[in-house]
Amino acid sequence: MSPRDGTLVLSRRQTGLLISPARLEILEALGALERASARELAAHLGRPPGAVYHHVRTLAQAGLIVEVDIRRGSRRPEVVYTSAAQRLAVAAGASPSGDRQALRTLQAVLRQAGRDVEAAFARGPALLKRRFYGGQVSSALTPRDVKRVIALLEEIESILRRAKRKGSGRVDDVFRWTSVFVPLGRKRP
Question: pLDDT tens digits for 115-126?
Answer without folding.
Answer: 888 988 898 888
